[in-house]
Specification:
Rossmann fold, Protein-Tyrosine Phosphatase, Chain A, alpha/beta, 6-stranded mixed beta sheet, disordered N terminus
């Protein structure tokens, strides 16, 4: 960044705490999952909220519109006229964005989303920060619902829309706030992980893997970010971490507090979970506490979620609730009535008895676990696994071979061409064709298509009643969901 521009930028950073209720707040990048939630929180607090984005798409765009908030598109300097009282800048915004340049020219006070959340929303509340490469959204949603059902009236900000609440945000009515602790960077003027601003007290660490290749050079850079979080937890706080994974345990060692406990399936964890029964409708699992080899049964729980990763997420919530003395009946009620999250193993239709499921999975580990969970849940059905390489990391070559292992478990693989690789050097681009070729070497049925329309056409010819179509993308996927429902309904 130009040094003069950087100095000018930093001179206008400010705190949202100084703003009077009723003031006009503009959000740049409003359709990001966290930004859309903050928009709702601010409107609920009585502020006039507007926002801008380049490419709004559901479910966040529809949530924003349902709140009566106007989305201006694309980013233009005119979006800051009339001049707002304050601007919150999303991490999708670069310093040379037309709107960012106008923001500085007008000398409007501003801050990042994480700073606004920490200073203005979380503030002195008891915080629950859910961190990790995978499982954050589901675990944050479940933690929020469990605390709600136990009577705590928590506030929350979630990177998705939990079905129990129908919105991704809520201002706290009680004294606690649950937030998805994203490791992605904060803003172009504040290059630290978002969770640094979230005043972490009670933390869940679900996983630590390399991701976000656009901002992290390697795994060690990712590890350093999570280590920084570990060292921020106060002595009075708590850490619950996945004890089955060496990388997570390594990071957790950097946390020196007393209330630090591992969970997992392995016998060396301090809280051990065990799947008792799994059906299409529910999973029953048990948790026992391991105190130096002495096992004490905690309880058995029932949830509608399936798959090992989801049971691990549920276990983490149970343990964190247990450490904070949340009544067990409230925890059980929360688990048994949890309805899941939009775009996380969400059933979106069943035209002509063909089940269509949508999931946000894009990292190889998430893809493999999601496919395994769905194929395990629907044991007697063929599952078509449809994938769009769309995230910043999945469009790059870094996980090219990891995806071979991830998709090797599939009944049939259907790939789209990678989304918008124009800004990625050719030698660093993910290749759908190469992945298909590698899968063919494993005798896996796999195909690649140019676009969503070709995929819809193929599936309309191949899918049969009782089959399952699992669609994985972290974006809009050119409207494939409704297109497929319409085509299969004929």
């Amino acid at each position: 960044m130009n040094q003069d521009l950087q100095n000018k930028t930093l001179s206008h950073q400010s705190s949202l705490k100084n703003l009077k209720t009723g003031s006009h707040v503009h959000l740049m990048g409003i359709c990001g999952t966290a930004m859309a939630s903050l928009a709702g929180l601010l409107k609920d607090k009585g502020f006039k909220v507007t926002g801008s984005d380049a490419n709004p798409y559901p479910p966040m765009s529809t949530q924003i519109e349902s709140l009566g908030i106007t989305i201006s598109k694309p980013y233009r300097k005119e979006n800051l006229h009339p001049k707002p009282d304050f601007v919150i800048v999303g991490n999708v915004i670069s310093a040379n964005n037309e709107e960012a340049i106008e923001l500085n020219a007008l000398a409007i006070p501003y801050c990042s989303l994480p700073q606004a959340m920490g200073e203005f929303i979380i503030d002195q509340k008891v915080s629950y920060v859910i961190a990790g490469t995978h499982g954050k959204t589901t675990t944050t949603s479940l933690m929020s619902w469990v605390l709600d059902q136990a009577g705590y009236k928590p506030g929350f900000l979630i990177g998705g829309i939990p079905k129990n609440f129908s919105q991704s945000f809520r201002n706290p009515q009680g004294n606690c706030f649950v937030i998805e602790g994203d490791e992605y960077d904060t803003a172009y003027f504040d290059k630290v992980p978002k969770f640094i601003h979230y005043r972490p007290q009670n933390v869940i660490l679900t996983s630590v893997e390399f991701d976000h290749a656009d901002i992290y050079a390697d795994f060690q850079a990712v590890r350093s970010a999570f280590v920084r979080l570990m060292k921020m937890i106060p002595a009075s706080g708590s850490l619950v971490y996945w004890g089955d994974d060496e990388r997570v345990c390594d990071v957790a060692q950097e946390c020196q507090i007393t209330q630090k406990f591992s969970y997992g399936f392995k016998s060396n964890c301090q809280f051990i979970c065990r799947i008792v029964e799994e059906t299409e409708g529910y999973t029953k699992f048990a948790i026992a506490q391991n105190e130096n080899g002495q096992m004490t049964d905690l309880a058995q729980f029932v949830t509608t979620m399936t798959g090992r990763y989801n049971i691990l997420n549920a276990t983490a919530v149970v343990v964190q609730a247990y450490l904070n003395q949340v009544p067990l009946d409230g925890v059980m009620k929360g688990l048994s009535t949890f309805a899941g999250v939009k775009r996380r193993q969400e059933i979106i239709g069943e035209p002509n008895q063909i089940l269509i499921i949508e999931d946000f999975a894009h990292h190889p580990t998430a893809v493999k676990e999601t496919v395994s969970a769905i194929q395990s849940k629907y044991k007697d059905r063929k599952v078509f696994s449809v994938f769009e390489p769309r995230s910043a990391t999945s469009r790059r070559k870094v996980f090219q071979k990891d995806y071979v292992d991830a998709f090797s478990v599939c009944h049939e693989v259907i790939l789209a061409e990678a989304f918008d690789q124009g800004k990625i050097s050719e030698d660093n681009r993910f290749s759908s064709q190469e992945l298909i070729s590698d899968l063919h070497q494993l005798n896996k049925e796999a195909r690649v298509f140019k676009n969503a329309d070709e995929i819809v056409q193929y599936l309309s010819q191949k899918a049969r009643p009782k089959d399952v179509i699992l669609i994985m993308s972290n974006g809009g996927f050119d409207g494939i969901y409704q297109k497929l429902i319409n085509k299969l309904s004929v």
